[in-house]
Predict the structure.
Amino acid sequence: MSKTIFCVIGLLSCIHFTTAAENFQKPVKPILRGHAHNDYEHPRPCFDALDNGFCSMEADVFLVKETLLVAHSVFQLKPERTLETLYFEPLRERARRFDGKIFPDAERFYLWIDLKTEAASTYAALKKVLEQYADILTRYENGTVIPGAVTVILTGSANLNLIQHEPIRYAGVDGGWVALDSEVSVDLIPAVGLNWKREFPQFNGKLSPAEQEKLAEQVRKTHERGRKLRYWNAPDHEEVWKILYDADVDFINTDRLEPLRNFLLEHTIQCPLTL
């Protein structure tokens, strides 16, 4: 009986590893404008978004005794859910398998890291982690961008002061609404993240002409400076996705991976992501 059980377990193990290998060999079509918001809350953090082709995902991190733990709140922290385990290790393995890319058919992949604890100490710990994974990261040397498999964007408590004087670094920051009119270089602020409910507090399913104009202006200002635009806190359904898609917003925020993937595939989105 024990020998039979051993054989069955061995067979199941082979099936598991074969399936994983096939996933690496045949990656899905990349969804260039899909952003997996609160990605770590999915059953398989990182992997579920990758399996749906998402080229951008977000992880919230808390600094706990010099370790960066991934969770939405302090009540969900678990010691085994580190930033390295959930994200950097799988992404490094994938980059090695696909010749330095996360998706063979996508030039860029973005990992947004939302700092939930005090900025300076959290970034100091994060910087050490980033240096350990320098082989897969986009890096910045004195204003020159050297593309890597993963481009890191800091958000949350992160600010420009954390990174702007570093001669070599492995992250840019989300400039927020102040970056709309900022002339700070794109290598420091590659992206703008805006709170939809703050920008459009009267939104009721449709944008008024004035709101449409405001949205178009924010997209224009962002793109003129070479940055990428993302709205968070927006209603997560198709009507809003369509508004963002039509407005040429770079990253469409969602917690609903497969529905957004289907929506974007239906609209045949091909928007190159470059810095």
Residues 2-25 form the longest helix (24 residues). The domain at 27-266 is CATH 3.20.20.190 (TIM Barrel).
